[in-house]
Amino acid sequence: MSLEQDIKQERFQNEFEKAAINILVTASWLHNRNASRLKVHDITPEQYNVLRILRGSYPKALMLAEITCRMIDKSSNATRLVEKLRQKDLLKREICENNRRQVDISITEKGLELLKTIDTEALTWLKSLKVISKSEAEELNRILDKLRSS
């Protein structure tokens, strides 16, 4: 389905406006699909992002500021996300022995196991993106990187 059909708009001011709206609509579509697949695991895409960041640094713990700067959505409330994940036993918060003002955050075994389970479902999730070729995906990544670096 074309963007015009999807949002029921016949014309755009120019191709740049159309591209910007197309990116926003596609991002929303991807976010909703991602949220649906994670909902069965009782986590949100933002919580999943925190867990992936912590897995990437495992076994090294991270401070909240380090997590925040690595997040996809920089406006997410990382403090609230960390607390919800702590309540689910998916991560732990510990006061640093050397600096009592520092809180170290690390993923738990339960959190690692949850990510392993989600990883096994990744092929199904990524299948919807395989309507484009690998070279088209590479070109799309190049273009999106170029847009963000301007």
Low-confidence segments, ≥5 residues, pLDDT <50? none
Distance between the termini: 30 Å
CATH topology of the largest domain: Arc Repressor Mutant, subunit A
Topology as a string of helices (H) and strands (E): HHHHHEEHHH
How much β-strand is present in the residues? Answer: 5-15%
Q: Please, what is the CATH homologous superfamily of the largest domain?
A: Winged helix-like DNA-binding domain superfamily/Winged helix DNA-binding domain
* Rg computed from alpha carbons, rounded to a whole number of angstroms: 19 Å
Number of strands: 2
Give the helix proportion (percent range).
55-70%
- Number of helices, where a helix is a run of at least 4 consecutive DSSP H or I residues: 8
3D shape: elongated
What's the CATH architecture name of the largest domain? Orthogonal Bundle
Question: What number of structural domains do the residues give?
Answer: 2
Mean pLDDT: 92
Explained architecture:
With 150 residues, the protein is mainly alpha-helical. The chain folds into two domains: 1-40, no CATH class; 43-148, Winged helix-like DNA-binding domain superfamily/Winged helix DNA-binding domain (Arc Repressor Mutant, subunit A), CATH 1.10.10. Helices cover 62% and strands 7% of the residues. The protein is built from eight helices and two strands, in the order αααααββααα. It has helices at 3-7, 15-39, 45-57, 64-70, 78-87, 109-120, 122-127, 134-148, and strands at 91-95, 103-107. A two-stranded antiparallel ribbon has the order 1-2. β1 and β2 form a beta hairpin. α3 crosses α5. It is elongated. The mean pLDDT is 92.
